[in-house]
Amino acid sequence: MLNEIYEQTTSHMNKSIEALKRDYSTLRTGKVTTTIVDHIRVDYYGTPTALSQVGSVIAQDASTIAITPWEKNILNPIEKAIREANIGVNPNNDGIVIKLFFPPMTTEQRKEVVKQAKVMTEHAKVAIRNVRKDSNDKIKKLEKDKAINEDDSKKAQDQVQKITDEHITKIDEVFKAKEADILKV
């Protein structure tokens, strides 16, 4: 019973860390990645469609992303969607490929991105604390229903707290690594 709660707690907390890593992938670091444009939706025959679904999106080098649409008539809608997404660059359309040239990040921009990462990190910590609360509530319910005694309840809550502390530490490590990646010139 309690082992099941521990496993669920660990599983949910691991999912929170994975979600944080996915969130981090949308942030710009010194090197440009195609995840920067993942959230952009293009009006494709009246349907909002992911940019990666209407063309090939590749990072040509550390500062350039090239988008080659599957159909030539979708060039302008792609260009419009990129402008509206406000990702900090203007698309260059040569009639075949749309290129996004990202200038090197300034120190100020890097600090701003680190702030965004901190906010994402705090959201992940809150998610982990919510998982802890849910697990502790389950343990207290078991105690109330006389399935476990008070000592077992206390030990179980201590174990949940240990699992929580481990995951908070992991989140801090992930943040430190991301911060170093962002600030690296």
Task: Describe what is shown at a glance.
This protein has helices at 2-24, 51-54, 75-85, 107-144, 150-183; strands spanning 41-44, 47-50, 55-61, 64-69, 91-93, 98-101. The protein is α+β, with helices and mostly antiparallel strands and 185 residues long. The strands form two sheets. Strands 3-4-6-5 form a four-stranded antiparallel sheet. A two-stranded antiparallel ribbon has the order 1-2.
Polypeptide structure, described:
The structure is a single chain. The chain has 185 residues and is of the alpha+beta class. It has 2 domains: 2-26 and 106-183, Ribosome-recycling factor (Topoisomerase I, Chain A, domain 4); 34-101, Gyrase A, domain 2, CATH 3.30.1360.40. The chain has 5 helices and 6 strands; from the N terminus they run H-E-E-H-E-E-H-E-E-H-H. A hairpin with a 2-residue loop joins strand 1 and strand 2 (47-50). It is elongated and about 75 Å long. The termini are far apart.
Count of strand segments = 6
CATH architecture name of the largest domain? Orthogonal Bundle
CATH superfamily of the largest domain: Ribosome-recycling factor
Overall pLDDT metric = 91
CATH topology of the largest domain: Topoisomerase I, Chain A, domain 4
The end-to-end span amounts to: 50 Å
Uncertain segments of ≥5 residues (pLDDT<50)?
none
- The percent range for helix content is 55-70%
Number of helices: 5
Query: What's the order of the H and E elements?
Result: HEEHEEHEEHH
What global shape is seen?
Answer: elongated
Strand order of the largest sheet: 3-4-6-5
Rg, Å, rounded: 23 Å
Structural class determined from secondary elements:
alpha+beta
Looking at how many chains there are and whether they match, the oligomeric state comes to single chain
Main beta sheet: strand number and arrangement?
A: 4 strands, antiparallel
Provide the domain count: 2
Beta-strand percentage range: 15-25%
Please report the first level of CATH classification, the CATH class of the largest domain.
Mainly Alpha
